[in-house]
Amino acid sequence: MNIKSLLLGSAAALIAVSGARAADAVVVAEPEPAEYVKICDVYGAGYFYIPGTETCLRIGGYIRYDASGGDIGSFDGARTSDVTSGKDQGTWLKNERFTLKTWTGQETELGTLKTYTEMRMNFGNHNADAGYDGFGVNAAGNKAFDLHFAWAQLGGLRVGLDESAFDTFVGYAGNVIQDTLVPYGGFQTNEIQYYFDAGNGFSAVVSLEEGSGGSVASATNYNGYGVGTIDSYVPHVVGGVKYTQGWGDIVGVVAYDSNYENVSGKVRLDVNVTNELSLFGMVGYGSDGKLGDVGLARSFYKPWGGHWAFWAGGTYKFTDKASFNAQVSGDQFKNYGVAANIAYTLVPGFTVTGEVDYLHDGRFGDLDNSNWTGATKKNSVGGLIRFQRDF
Fold it and tell me: Any signal peptide, and if so, which residues (predicted)?
């Protein structure tokens, strides 16, 4: 009896313990509702809220493929050496680019807080690189990484890496690809800028700028002058005013180059003639300042030859998909450029552009002219085709 009672008691104890353990089993928590990305349409299409924040983000960019040929003075061609004979000859100039862009926006008690970044990565051949055998070759490979834009803006105050207000505020020189056959600006710079919108179409800008490591002049002047970066604590200064209406706009900018103590300016007029046709004209003028002391004709804010220069052109839209773009330009040194293209959007976001370019070098062989395009002849002709997918 004692053994039987012991066995029955042990069985009852085991059942009780098993029941207790079953009651204490781990309970799996209910899954929390998924937090889906929310659309932010305050700043335009493509923005979404960064989860857990009030900041709106947009990501975009493009992939581009360029193939060009002709004379290098047109910016389109390339020179190389035959790999067996060493004979100098023309070749394709190729470039593949991937560009990544980001935009952010957020409303604050001091106004809209925005940022913009743009990073460019390129692969292609380099014009007349020196080969191991001493000949010029066009070795294809990765090129330097380009952090092209990286700025933050609160209200009208912008700080960081941008292109100079001397170029962005007045506008680029048309919708052609090779728009710097006669150059009109130094472009990239660190800056502290303030933009003011007065309403009724009036706006203004003031920008304190560093310049860049080298201007169009310094890249090609053998004496090393023409550097665009400030050489003291005194910044370059740019100011501009603009008036915009439905018919177009008129804008003027003035720049003070603290390195050479020279002043340059540009005035531009844009006119929307019809829904299909738009035209522009821009003139630039710059003083020599201390540029004359070093025998140079060009600087970061006056990259054209001589005191004055002009750019004019327009766009005609045949259809929503096809457009014709043209630009003519010239300066006091009798440098003249012509560029024209047809751009066709095959499908939304994918555009093919074919362009023809011509440059007359008015002072070919003159060192003071800087030979900024690398031209090997007085008259250069070239062309290119571009495939670009924007996203």
Answer: 1-22
Q: Please, which residues bridge with residue 90 across strands? A: 79
Q: Please report the sign of the dihedral spanned by the C-alpha atoms of residue 42, residue 347, residue 60, residue 242.
A: negative
Q: What angle do CA 175, 177, 182 make, to 5 degrees?
A: 95
- Residue 156, judged by CB atoms within 10 A of its CB (0-12, 13-18, 19+), counts as middle
Q: What are phi and psi of 40, to 5 degrees?
A: -120, 105
Using the predicted structure, report yes or no on whether residue 381 has a pLDDT greater than 80.
yes
With contact defined as beta carbons under 8 Å apart, do 340 and 356 qualify? yes
Distance, in Å, from the CA atom of 141 to the CA atom of 126, rounded to the nearest integer, reads 8
pLDDT of 29 above 70 = no
β-bridge mates for residue 250, sequence order: 243, 269
Q: How many of the other CB atoms lie within 10 Å of CB of 200?
A: 9
C-alpha distance from residue 54 to each of 32, 38, 113 (Å) = 21, 11, 11
Burial of 288 (C-beta count, 10 Å sphere; 0-12/13-18/19+): middle
Domains, in order of start, for the chain? 31-390 (2.40.160.10)
Q: Please provide the DSSP assignment of 93-138 as one string.
A: EEEEEEEEEEEEEEEETTEEEEEEEEEEEEEEE-TTEE-TTSSEE-
Q: In this structure, are residues 253 and 266 in contact, taking their beta carbons and an 8 Å threshold?
A: yes
Contact (Cβ atoms closer than 8 angstroms) between residue 227 and residue 220: no
Which pLDDT score, from 0 to 100, does residue 44 have?
93
Answer yes or no: is pLDDT of 96 > 60: yes
- Write b or e for each residue in 77-103: b if 16 or more Cβ atoms lie within 10 A of its Cβ, otherwise e: bbbbbeeeeeeeeebbbbbbbebebbb
Instruction: Collect all residues with Cβ–Cβ distance below 8 Å to 244 and sequence separation of at least 6.
Output: 201, 203
Distances in Å between the Cα of 26 and the Cα atoms of 194, 218, 259 are 61, 73, 74
pTM: 0.84
